[in-house]
Amino acid sequence: MFVAEVKEHLVNGIIPFWKKLRDNTYGGYYGYMNYDLELDQTAIKGCILNSRIMWFFSNAYLTLKDESLLEEATHAFEFMKAHCIDYKYGGVYWMLDYKGNPVEDMKHTYNQAFAIYALSSYYVASGNSEALDLAMGLFHKIESTCKDEYGYLEAFDRTWEPIDNHKLSDNKHMESEGKVAEKTMNTILHVLEAYTELYRVGKDVEVGRCLEKLLQMTELKVYNKEKRQLEVFFDTQLRSIADMHSYGHDIEAAWLLDRAALVLGNQDIIDRTKAYTVPIAYKVKEVAFEKGALNNERFNNDIDKTRIWWVQAESVVGFINAYEKTQDVAFLEVAKEIWQYIKTYFIDSRAHSEWYWQVDENGRPNKSYPIVEPWKCPYHNGRMCLEVIRRDINV
């Protein structure tokens, strides 16, 4: 029943909504729809949004075999080729106007990673080797430009000179303390995610070696064994600079790290990874699951009990993955409760809508948040549906 419900929501809810966001005049997909479902066709278009949409339609096609989904992925691919990639200095821009002209030409490692992720999946879906070539080019750019002896630098200007990393350390608590993170768990996680997909589809030896190092970095530098959680914000030398627990990132990381280890195919790495991803999942279940959903995060002693759309989506996958690793049915029960919460409070019943961005503890949507914007996309909730279908576990 669970798998059937999720598939029905994917096919009749998420996919039709995002198809209608397609811009047939200037390419790509429209970048903003407010809470009242008013579409702004002249809003900025985030390159991350385009990458995530391309990834989503590529994988939806691979799962459902509907040719119209591959055509949508190709539409996003053509926009990326024509507008998102900087052919002079390399890499992918941060933000474009509605016509596809750069309005923020900074380069961020996180953004490059999502382009790699999308291009790799599109290569599998389409067989277009140009996509794989572009992904490998971005991989080499990250490895040649964005690394230091401790890990990955993150923020750069258009010509790849380092700049302040405000984009990924934009946190109200960090701001109140006057801190800017030079490195973040979020970027490390999504570079790992991108390299996992790139290695899976191309089996490049160098990519595999870098992926293995990312897993090692996460285990030894990002994971806090005593707390059973991932640290979030770091200085240049990967020393934690904040007492923070991001519940959504941890449960998402728990399954993405396992996926990376499985793709590498080394049993020792698989076992070493499981040894800390399982404790991460148990910790999140213990401290963050409340009243049918996952709270957002903890900073020092301040617990944010806001419910965020992507956190709920990733928790469904993360807890199902934890069940697969442990056979502990308590994880399945939590996944089931969160799906029920999503159906009740997050899926917008209004016509031509999708999921709310966030709801409060009582399930009331925050009307100041839009339905679509550069970070609000079908990547998390769409991927949840695809993973549930792929794993085929009824809870």
TrEMBL record:
**Pfam families attached here?**
GlcNAc_2-epim
Q: Which GO terms describe its molecular function?
A: cellobiose epimerase activity
Q: What name does the UniProt record give this protein?
A: Cellobiose 2-epimerase
Keywords on record: Isomerase
**Domain of life where this protein originates:** Bacteria
Species source reads Cellulosilyticum lentocellum (strain ATCC 49066 / DSM 5427 / NCIMB 11756 / RHM5)
* Entry function: Catalyzes the reversible epimerization of cellobiose to 4-O-beta-D-glucopyranosyl-D-mannose (Glc-Man).
Task: Report the catalytic activity.
Answer: D-cellobiose = beta-D-glucosyl-(1->4)-D-mannopyranose
Q: What is its EC number?
A: 5.1.3.11
Q: Name one GO biological process term.
A: carbohydrate metabolic process
Stored SUPFAM superfamilies = Six-hairpin glycosidases
Task: Report the sequence similarity comment from the record.
Answer: Belongs to the cellobiose 2-epimerase family. Belongs to the N-acylglucosamine 2-epimerase family.
Upper taxonomic lineage: Bacteria, Bacillati, Bacillota, Clostridia, Lachnospirales
